[in-house]
Specification:
It is a single chain. By secondary structure, the protein is an alpha+beta fold. The chain has 4 helices and 3 strands; from the N terminus they run H-E-H-H-E-E-H. Strand 2 and strand 3 form a beta hairpin. The radius of gyration is 15 Å and the shape is elongated. The two termini are 22 Å apart.
């Protein structure tokens, strides 16, 4: 069974991955896909929105005659990631309590 990831937590996942390392779109998509069952086209709208909200910025680097657009987290993005992380821990604690923690 595959579960849908809520968009707020997908934002958090993308921000967390970019916080570790600046990534270009395709590499970022592959990283997210290795964790969650999403389509190839899911991450780009997230990146566009995060960029519009100034949570990430972009820069281009040449690679084999083409440019790769890299995404970098901003200070605002790091602050938002902390908020999302807190939301996740609150949500997961409630779900664990409801479901009964298993050891």
């Amino acid at each position: 069974m595959q579960m849908q990831i809520q968009s707020r937590f997908l934002d958090g996942a993308v921000l967390a991955l970019i916080k570790e390392n600046d990534l270009y779109g395709y590499a970022l998509t592959q990283e997210v896909k290795s964790i969650f069952a999403i389509s190839d086209s899911t991450v780009y709208p997230v990146l566009k929105r995060l960029r519009k909200e100034k949570l990430v910025v972009t820069y281009d680097e040449p690679f084999q005659g083409r440019n790769r657009r890299y995404y970098q987290i901003t200070a605002s993005g790091s602050a938002e990631l902390q908020v999302i992380e807190q939301e996740w821990w609150t949500f997961s604690a409630k779900l664990n309590k409801l479901m009964g923690e298993r050891k």
